Amino acid sequence: DSGVTQTPKHLITATGQRVTLRCSPRSGDLSVYWYQQSLDQGLQFLIHYYNGEERAKGNILERFSAQQFPDLHSELNLSSLELGDSALYFCASSVGRANTEAFFGQGTRLTVV
Amino acid sequence: QQQVKQSPQSLIVQKGGISIINCAYENTAFDYFPWYQQFPGKGPALLIAIRPDVSEKKEGRFTISFNKSAKQFSLHIMDSQPGDSATYFCAASTNAGGTSYGKLTFGQGTILTVHP
Fold first, then answer.
1. Do residues B39 and B86 lie in contact, with contact meaning Cβ atoms separated by under 8 Å?
2. Which residue among A2, A45, A98 sits closest to B95, beta carbon to beta carbon?
3. Which of B111, B114, B116, B115 is nearest to B40 (CA)?
4. Contact A75, A108 (CB under 8 A)
5. I need a surface site. Which of A76, A80, B19, B77 has the fewest CB within 10 A?
6. Residue numbers in chain B where pLDDT is lower than 70
7. CB contacts < 8 Å between A and B, how many?
8. How far apart are CA A87 and CA A59, in angstroms?
């Protein structure tokens, strides 16, 4: 168990809908990262928050947004969902801003039908 | 320049053998190189990591070899066991500022199968 908690584990939703994925980082970790894993794209970085502030953005679609709350948990919001958004979404946390050990949660498997 | 290229895509090894997975990078600003192990239905788990000030790091049966001049690093799994069968990802990140700050850039993964 990495100590990173993601909910829900599975999510099935229809095209055009909006969903929210939640992540609780390990105790003491200030950084939260979101990654998308698909068969054709591999593990792709989406966004990084450190202590409530956005630090870096990857190839995150404009339909996707995230935030980190004062208690350090994070939410990833996906809207106007398309079939191609079906993937595993992982949250990772680390204690520092960069180049420190990052621990991944179990992921949320999103299926858009 | 942000890519990390990993090979082979898949690897079959007999129990007790050595598994070797290779990665190459282009971005000279990368200064942290972890390896992750992922089982089906699970998240990636950190195995071992290295920084470019050393050429080798060993933890149990897992060893990272790092060649800074060639911009390559590899994972060696000694005495491979069936329980090691998983997907392995190399990754790299940089402490430099900008859009790459802190993010892990992953290789495409290697599916390792260890036969009994």
1. yes
2. A98
3. B111
4. no
5. A80
6. 1-2, 96-101
7. 71
8. 15
